[in-house]
């Protein structure tokens, strides 16, 4: 009997473990993006800025793979791509030795965040 129960329950248990991964929302990558953004802004040398910007880029790639509300998906992806373009511009400025310009692009990321978080808060 016990064996029978476990045979029935095991797939359910594994299913429950796999579910959060499938339904994975944007919270986890967003937390990392937020953390790395602060670190990039705080950084006082180009190498540290570059490291955190690259981490943000990678986390946007993660975020883009996650489930998003279908009604907002197109808008969200558009926003994430815009942010990544600014991050690339920031990296390019750093490579060219222009930290001030790199910071201007980081500031644009903050406005994009505000703009697109408005869509995130909208119902439906
Ligand atoms: C432009 C595209 C973006 C979109 C579409 C977007 C979307 C979202 C969504 C839907 C959430 C809610 C996640 C949840 O709780 O399930 C969220 C949270 C968050 N986002 Fe974004 N976001 C974007 C850009 C950014 C940027 C650029 C930053 C940082 C610079 C950022 C930082 C955060 C933070 C800190 C949270 C709160 C995470 C938490 O603690 O729950 N986001 N975002």
TrEMBL record:
Single GO cellular component term: periplasmic space
Keywords assigned: Signal
Keyword Aminoacyl-tRNA synthetase recorded: no
Signal sequence residues: 1-23
Top-level taxon of origin: Bacteria
Record-stated family: Belongs to the cytochrome b562 family.
Annotated protein name in UniProt: Cytochrome B562
Species of origin: Aeromonas cavernicola
């Amino acid at each position: 009997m016990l064996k029978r129960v476990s045979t029935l329950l095991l797939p359910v248990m594994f299913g429950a473990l796999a579910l959060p991964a499938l339904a994975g929302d944007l919270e986890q990558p967003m937390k990392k993006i937020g953390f790395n953004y602060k670190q990039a802004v705080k950084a006082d040398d180009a190498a540290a800025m570059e490291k955190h910007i690259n981490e943000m880029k990678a986390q946007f790639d993660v975020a883009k793979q996650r489930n998003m509300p279908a009604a907002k998906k197109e808008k969200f992806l558009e926003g994430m791509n815009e942010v990544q373009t600014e991050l690339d511009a920031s990296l390019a400025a750093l490579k060219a030795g222009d930290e001030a310009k790199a910071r201007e692009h980081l500031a644009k990321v903050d406005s994009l965040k505000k703009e697109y978080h408005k869509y995130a808060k909208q119902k439906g």
